[in-house]
Amino acid sequence: MRIAIIGAGNMGGAIACGLAQGHFTETRDIIVANPHNEKLQKLQARFPDIQVTNDNKEAARGADIIIVAVKPWKVKEVLSPIHPQRPQILVSLAAGISMEQLAQYVDPEMPIFRIIPNTAIDVRASMTLICGRNASDEQRQLLLDIFNGMGLAMMLKEEQLEAATALSSCGIAYVLKYVQAAMQAGIEMGLSPQNSMRMVAQSLHGAAEILLKGDTHPSVEIDKVTTPGGITIKGLNELEHAGFASAVIRAMKASR
Questions:
Q1: Is 204 helix (H, G, I), strand (E, B) or coil?
Q2: Which residue ranges of the chain lie beneath pLDDT 70?
């Protein structure tokens, strides 16, 4: 399985690193193309067996999967000259570029996927959204297997991507905003910034593990720590008085 990644920016580079650390393909079968050498050199410094090039056509030639990790306005410029074709699989990270638009620059009958990771892909903990067109069940499972190796992947309909992006891609910023606010509270109460951050981050990690690995619901887990007359319910009620739930809902809907 030869995988070409066009674009060595934050997302393209992170995917290359994730693939190189996984067991899905051999590192020597990953080729990354980028117009400038600095990012390519950094990749090869970490993973010497990764192939690199400044030539997109060279990267795409013979690749089973072509991952396009460039800005939306560069997609046509990148895809038109290489014109991927069946049996290759095209994977695009370009936000806002529909599969119908992508099909204009490639063999329109080839398998096309859009993926939306979040920044946690850099530590192989992304929530990655995937939708596909002209793809078999085996090809859909292939994409899920690749990106489940870098966190958690979910297959959706294309019309669901906007809403899902608000929850997972934009949503990671809202989670970090909560961490920042909780840190400020910890500092005001006499804790160091570093200790505050680690406490809140570990609490989030624990909450995520409970929800992802257990057959449960947030309300069930909240009830476990809200004893009558206790301090947790007082804090939760303050959040509600301040419109916490409403603010989160409005932020998510504004991100569509």
A1: helix
A2: none
Amino acid identity of residue 147, one-letter, is F
pLDDT at 66: 96
Taking Cα atoms as reference points, which of 118, 16, 5 lies closest to residue 59? Answer: 5
DSSP annotation of 114 reads E
Q: Which run of H or E residues covers position 181?
A: helix 171-188
Q: Name all domains of the chain by residue range, CATH numbers in brackets.
A: 3-158 (3.40.50.720), 171-254 (1.10.3730.10)
Whether the pTM exceeds 0.85: the reply is yes
pLDDT reported for residue 194: 97
Find tokens 């593990």 and name the residue.
209
Cβ atoms 115, 95 nearer than 8 A: no
Exposure of 109 by Cβ count < 10 A (0-12 exposed, 13-18 middle, 19+ buried)? exposed
CA distance 116 to 162: 10
Number of neighbouring beta carbons within 10 Å of residue 122: 17
Comparing CA positions, the residue from 83, 71, 75, 78 lying closest to residue 101 is 75
Residue pair 43/18 in contact (Cβ under 8 Å)? The answer is no
Q: How many CA atoms lie within 13 A of 227 on its CB side?
A: 2
- Any alpha helices (H) in 5-120, and if so which ranges? 10-21, 37-46, 56-60, 75-82, 99-102
Phi, psi angles (nearest 5°) of residue 190: 105, 5
99 vs 72: CA distance, rounded Å = 12
Decide: helix, strand or coil at residue 216: coil
